[in-house]
Design brief:
The chain is an all-beta fold. The chain is about 0% helix and about 60% strand. It has no helices and eight strands. The relative contact order is 0.20.
Length: about 90
């Protein structure tokens, strides 16, 4: 994943090349936009220990015929800011 705070989330998948007699073709990467920042999941919860950012309008997912969406959960506490999780809402 690549998470750009309050901007967007991208997901990368490495795809192996095919083998031939001389050498294996290099691995290439597939990139999927999981979404652009649309806001906080629970704006009333701002100032608490956990904040969830919502991302929408990502790449089209053929399997579910919808645009990808995701959430990023941040944990804020005494001197430590941590990304708790980054999850795509539906498996594509």
């Amino acid at each position: 994943f690549e998470l750009c705070h309050a901007a967007g989330i991208r997901q990368f998948h490495g795809v192996e090349g095919t083998k031939n007699r001389q050498r294996q073709k290099p691995v290439h990467v597939q990139e999927h936009l999981l979404g652009k920042f649309v806001g906080l999941q629970d704006p009333e919860g701002v100032g608490g220990e956990e904040v969830t950012h919502e991302y929408a309008g990502g790449s089209h997912c053929v399997e579910i015929d919808a645009l990808r969406t995701a959430k990023a959960v941040y944990s804020c506490g005494e001197g430590a800011e941590v990304i708790e999780s980054v999850n795509e809402d539906s498996t594509c």
